[in-house]
Amino acid sequence: MKVAFIGLGNMGASLAKAVAKEVDAQDLLLFNRSPQKVQEFISQYGGTASDLEQVFQEAEVIFLGVQPYQICPLLEEYQGILAQRSNLLLVSMAAGLELEKMADVIQNDQLGLIRIMPNTPVAIGQGVISLARSQAVTDQQVAQVNQLLSGAGALYEIEEKLMDPATAVAGCGPAFVYQMIEAMADAGVSLGLSREQALKMAAETFHGASQMVLETGEHPARLRDAVCSPGGSTIAGVNRLEQVGLRGDIIAGVEAAYKRTQEMGQEAGRNQIR
Fold it and tell me: Do 235 and 153 have their domain in common?
């Protein structure tokens, strides 16, 4: 099976690195506007440099790692080839771009279309990948994608209407977590810890707390309460965070990310109309 990547930006390259472990080098076709990026990737992980025509003609799975507004014009440019393909699966990682909009351009009901939204920890194999599929996509094809991306992290299949919320929570979420880790480390430094100590302690605390949620299955509120001794320092800190509105600010941040994701999808749709 030949697998192709169009676009080797941060996210595309991270996923391609995982896929490179699952397919032979000659079966991993790579295209990027900058040929240098392709050669750098091949030198580290393997693969074969390709052009767009070869990609659309030969690959059985194509990961589209370009900007949302670029997807539909790209598919339109190669519509002649796409109209003749039947054993092809297109996997888009473009935020906000609906499957229906891509289908309207391709005009081939036999092609399988998948939307994924990975987050940045896929770079170290610890990512979260949301997935939605068109009706033409079989369970076997989803299993293939799952296998190809197994080295990137956990894959969650959801309804397409939930892709934008999933993007806001999991796709954008790492940036929110990084901000909180940074803030906790800054506080530690102000209280006397070294920068290195504070940063590692904060990051490991987030890691351990996350694992507690996943492995125990307990609601975060119950786990939080277990740390809060009556009249203790933890409950004092928790109360202060409630007073300054941390919970509400996090919710507002996720909602803002969700709104922008929807706007990006609308912008991509307008570009298609042009």
Answer: no
